[in-house]
Amino acid sequence: MKFINDDGLVICGNITFCLLLAIFPFLLFFTSLTVLLTGDNNAQTAIDYLFSIAPENIINPIAKEIKSLVTASDSNLITLSAFLTFWTGVSAVEAVRGALNKAYIATEDRPYWLRLIQDTAFILIGIISIISLGAMILFTPKIVSLLHDYFPSFTDLIGQFNFWSYPIGILLLTLIIFATNAIIPNKRPTVLELLPGVIFSVITWLILVEVFAIYLNNFSKYAAIYGSLAGIIATMVFIYFSAIVFMLGSEINQTSHKLLKNSIK
Questions:
Q1: What is the pTM of this model?
Q2: 176: left (phi over 0), alpha (psi -120 to 50) or beta
Q3: Cα–Cα distance for residue pair 226/90, rounded to 1 Å
């Protein structure tokens, strides 16, 4: 199997470490910015909505730790967390790049400075996109409530907004997977070549979310084994399986393209 031959499990472990290292600085930056712009009460709401399609058992321990750090921190936290987000984010993007180059059988020959620019752009676009989504999630209900005072017909919009938060999360996930496969590797697959793997990754990841949530609720012994680190360990395991799903999607793209190419010949 190509995934095993490409050291897929080892690479996914590297991706897991880099992403876990990057998650906390980013959440610190995001929640600190939320506290600065909208007040402390909205920080938890922002995290809850941004991870609305992830298992609650995984997100709650992280959100709790981030919230406590934000509450107890000083004004320099935004600068520090922004720097750490960039530093760890570059490592995470490079780990994903190595995995995708393996999957698509591409040789990385671009200079480091060019990759660094691409990594920075990818991180900035991701941060801006997530912050924009968070701002929309935070402020739209308030705007709708304000409009309700003058236009009673807007009463149902808040409920509709909460309903649409789930598909918006799925759409964001799809766009992230698609953009990552299209931009990061040293190869430019077509849209049609990317579709099989993206569809597989999204559907499989949504199933993984539900299965992992059921496992944590009914069978998990993380708390008994790891104590206060249980939430972090559960997050690490979830990211690891997510990385496997992501890389398998890329392997499917490459394999389906190869099979199609051979069938044309």
A1: 0.75
A2: alpha
A3: 29
Phi/psi at 188 (nearest 5 deg)? -120, 85
Q: How far is CA 54 from CA 132, 145, 209, in A?
A: 19, 27, 6
Give the amino acid at 46: A
For residues 48 and 64, give the distance between their C-alpha atoms in angstroms, rounded to a whole number: 11
Place of tokens 């995470």: 92
- Closest CA relative to residue 58, chosen from 232, 242, 223: 232
CA proximity to 174, closest of 162, 182, 164 = 182
Alpha-helix runs per DSSP H in the chain: 2-5, 8-38, 41-50, 56-72, 77-103, 112-150, 157-183, 191-218, 222-226, 230-264
Tell me how far the alpha carbon of residue 135 is from its chain's centroid.
17
Measured distance CA(261)–CA(71) in Å, rounded = 56
Where do the structural domains in the chain lie, given as residue ranges?
2-264
The fraction of the chain above a pLDDT of 70, given in percent, is 62
Would you state the structure tokens that stand for residue 41, as one six-digit string?
Answer: 């009460």
User: How far, in Å, are 3, 13, 84 from residue 10 at the CA level?
Assistant: 10, 5, 25
Question: Residues 179-200: pLDDT tens digits?
Answer: 888 888 888 878 888 888 899 9
CA 19 vs CA 90, 152, 177, 242: distances in Å:
10, 45, 15, 11
C-alpha closest to that of 226 among 235, 214, 218: 235
